[in-house]
Structures are given as C-alpha cells and as structure tokens.
Amino acid sequence: MATQFLIRTSYKAVRLAAANHLPRTPVRVMCTAKGIPTNEEQATGLELRALLAQKKGKDPYSIFRPKEYAGTSEDPHIVPSIGDKRLVGCLCEEDNTAIVWFWLHEGNPERCPSCGSHYKLIHEELPH
User: Fold this and answer.
1) Is 43 exposed, middle or buried (0-12, 13-18, 19+ CB in 10 A)?
2) What is the distance between the alpha carbons of residues 46 and 63, in angstroms, rounded to a whole number?
3) Long-range contacts for 24-32 (Cβ within 8 Å, ≥24 apart)?
4) In terms of Cα–Cα distance, which of 63, 65, 81 is closest to 119?
5) Where are the beta strands (DSSP E) in 33-117?
6) Which stretches within 1-128 are classed as H helix?
7) By C-alpha distance, which of 78, 65, 68 is closest to 118?
8) pLDDT, greater one: 10 or 96
9) For residue 106, what is the DSSP state?
10) What pLDDT is attached to residue 49?
C-alpha cells in the first residue's frame, strides 16, 4: 500500500516537472504595501502613551536618565513625589556602603544630615 502511494506521488512529480509546472512555495512578506510599520503605528496601551509623551519631551514613567544636579542650596537634587513627603536615601560618598535615610518634606530644600547635599521635593501627578 505504501509502495503504491510512493509510485503515484513520484509519477505526479515527474509529470509536473516535465510540464514545468512545479508548485511554488508562497512568498511570505513581513510588511504591508506601505512598508514596515513604525513603533508608533504598532504600539498600543501604555507603550503608545509613553511614546507620545516622549515626542512631547515629557518623561511620565521615568524612562530617561535623571538630570544631574549640583546638590547645593541654589541647585538642589529634585525628588519627585505624589505625596507631601518622601523617604530619601543618600549615598554620601562614592565608595560608601551605608545609605543615609531621611524624610524629605515638600517646601524648601533640605540637607542630608551626613554630607550636606540639598534635596527638594517636587509634587507630581501620576501619569495614568
């Protein structure tokens, strides 16, 4: 039975090859007629909101690297918060292994009790 099947299929293949009608494999295209879609065209949900905010120059989900501040009273480190106070950790020296924790309240800049760097709390709304 298997032999008859092989003979029949090989006969059909030889006949199609002789007639030059070999079946072509379908070509799969990874894009539409307009081309490959951009990130904005295929993004949905929170990803789309983040891309649109980045186009406007905003950073609602803290994706970008934070801006560097001097830490002085004139140019304090900015700490965003949705409340009126936040717990802040200061690594006073670069090679320090202990973190100095203190509460930062909204209003005037406050100093780190150990190294003297200034921090200022800025109220922000949630992006969603």
Assistant:
1) middle
2) 13
3) none
4) 81
5) 77-81, 85-90, 100-105, 110-111
6) 2-18, 39-42, 45-55
7) 78
8) 96
9) B
10) 84
Q: Which residues contact 115 (CB under 8 A, 6 or more apart)?
A: 90, 92, 93, 100
- Report d(CA 34, CA 32) in Å as an integer: 5
> Cα separation of 119 and 57, whole Å?
24
Say how many residues make up the chain: 128
Q: Which residues of 6-27 are buried (b: 16+ CB within 10 A; e: fewer)?
A: eeeeeeeeeeeeeeeeeeeeee
**Residue 122 · residue 108 · CB < 8 Å:** no
Alpha carbons 96 and 22: distance in angstroms, whole number: 73
39 in helix, strand or coil? helix
Residue pointed to by tokens 């891309």:
51
pLDDT digits (tens, 9 = 90+) for 45-75: 888 888 888 888 877 777 777 778 888 989 9
